[in-house]
């Protein structure tokens, strides 16, 4: 009798799942993974014959399952309950985790380091060094409990990496000469400051890589040491707990250090209005697939400048499914700051609304200084603090720029160029390769592909052993422009 009951239960469960997966509406967007899901492929006889159509149908069926986020959340809750026991060093591994490993770099002879031109002291963790940790999906390190939990992305780069990034900055100095100041900033990620001692075997140190960048900069390129700056403020909320990015406060301290190196004015936070988006859960929930991150939302705190006028102009890029630029729109003015409702997962796009655009901010500061920030998404936290420092602030993402930057610099009378990338992006050949391409590319018409860059002398290919997750262009869902305050009269 018991066997029959068991068979009936299994059959009912099987039929229920079949009913849900075969007849219920398919999911189109995953809020958990912060991406659009696969769509049903277009049919052609050629694709049917070569097998790509059936393969894409299979991908669509598994990727767009009904209630995808619900089932993934249930899976995370189960994993959290049955987590494997701690290892000897008190690091708990999730059942699905595969330990990360790897070498410092891909093959090739390492260049001998030049003597450091700037001393960067090593950071000592006095915040959570003695805490235990667990390793979640994709090697994400989870530290802390309750509303203090923090997710850290392991770093796999080596001490001799990022040479290409330094050489790209050197190339810009060679091209622009004394007419333009060139600065190089490598932004460390949270794991460098908050990884407990017991989990340090799961990640590599970032300081040796940053020192290597500085060591390879030509004398004319000015390094901006935000490693030391951020380390001094590590007990503050300078990194987001639930996201792989730093926080606007971390960007403030980095912008302050850049302004000091650049010799331009800088206003402290008393000149800014503090604003908050409550209940933010960022990208590390989707990366780690750890339910504790979802259960520990945080405040996204940002700062809007007061007492300075500024006008923001955007050019939006059209991108294809591979995130390649296929066209660009006409310039239009819009707010620099966008407001997201509490609990919205797109709050990191508060500044400029995302990455797939060229941003130009003209301010009421008249000192003849105009800066370009060459950046990834980390760099979005910097420009909002520089409106008191520069007449104009131009923001160019390494992934989405279509113009000849030499002509752009001349046309806009640029005086300063800041390379500002997180260490994963700085390590990537795609990033510094893009910066080199900007020196040669031409954009003839919307929809055309940028001309290929001429071959450059930089041949080194670097990829961190634990690569950064592919950054999907953020597409905030209907952000609301901030109402201008009395001082935001041009926004």
Describe the structure.
The chain is an alpha/beta fold. It is built from 14 helices and 19 strands. It has helices at 2-23, 45-50, 52-63, 68-81, 163-176, 191-194, 207-215, 226-232, 248-262, 284-288, 291-294, 405-411, 423-427, 429-438; strands at residues 29-30, 35-36, 91-93, 133-135, 141-143, 150-152, 181-187, 221-224, 272-280, 298-305, 310-319, 325-328, 332-333, 338-339, 357-363, 370-375, 392-397, 416-422, 480-481. The strands form 5 sheets. Strands 7, 8, 11, 12, 13, 15, 16, 17 and 18 form a 9-stranded mixed β-sheet that branches. Strands 3-4-5-6 form a 4-stranded mixed β-sheet.
Give the topology, please.
Elements: H1 2-23, E1 29-30, E2 35-36, H2 45-50, H3 52-63, H4 68-81, E3 91-93, E4 133-135, E5 141-143, E6 150-152, H5 163-176, E7 181-187, H6 191-194, H7 207-215, E8 221-224, H8 226-232, H9 248-262, E9 272-280, H10 284-288, H11 291-294, E10 298-305, E11 310-319, E12 325-328, E13 332-333, E14 338-339, E15 357-363, E16 370-375, E17 392-397, H12 405-411, E18 416-422, H13 423-427, H14 429-438, E19 480-481
Parallel strand pairs: 3-4, 7-8, 7-18, 16-17, 16-18
Antiparallel strand pairs: 1-2, 4-5, 5-6, 9-10, 11-12, 11-13, 11-15, 14-19, 15-17
